[in-house]
Amino acid sequence: MYKKTFFFRQDRQLKKINPDEIIYLEAAKSYTKLYTANETYIARITLLEAMKLLPENKFLRVHRSFAVSADHIDVVKRDGVQLATIPVEVPVSRMYYVAFTKQFIILDSADIDTGKKRMISARERRS
């Protein structure tokens, strides 16, 4: 399967970056910071444009200014995402929380929209 190769300008050169190495993205006006385990890169592209170019469904928008790689998520909380690869917690806004969590299979009986536990009947469980 063909993978896109990504390059961006850095010190008058084109620097190659593997999308699998990107842990999260942060918007900074008309720039986007790309964080990897070892380095931070700055590309002159908006977060929305970067999300369109990167592999679909790999990066999930969690905030107006942040997107995270699904592969690097360790813990999801109501107001933040803890990353497995680096000791960083990325904020999750109320506006993006429900859409963000609906992209996962959650093995729990809590109602994701309200956070409250709900009773599941035996009939529901079988279907």
Report on this structure.
- The strands form three sheets. The chain has a five-stranded antiparallel beta sheet.
- Strand 1 (6-10) and strand 2 form a beta hairpin.
- Helix content is 16%, strand content 35%.
- The protein is α+β, with helices and mostly antiparallel strands and 127 residues long.
- The protein has helices spanning 47-53, 94-101, 122-126, and strands at 6-10, 13-17, 24-28, 31-35, 40-43, 59-63, 66-69, 73-76, 80-83, 89-91.
- It has three helices and ten strands, in the order E-E-E-E-E-H-E-E-E-E-E-H-H.
- The chain is elongated.
Secondary structure layout plus pairing:
Blueprint (H helix, E strand, L loop, with lengths): L5 E5 L2 E5 L6 E5 L2 E5 L4 E4 L3 H7 L5 E5 L2 E4 L3 E4 L3 E4 L5 E3 L2 H8 L20 H5 L1
Antiparallel strand pairs: 1-2, 3-4, 3-7, 4-5, 6-7, 8-9, 9-10
Summed up:
This protein has 127 residues and is α+β, with helices and mostly antiparallel strands. It has helices at residues 47-53, 94-101, 122-126, and strands at 6-10, 13-17, 24-28, 31-35, 40-43, 59-63, 66-69, 73-76, 80-83, 89-91.
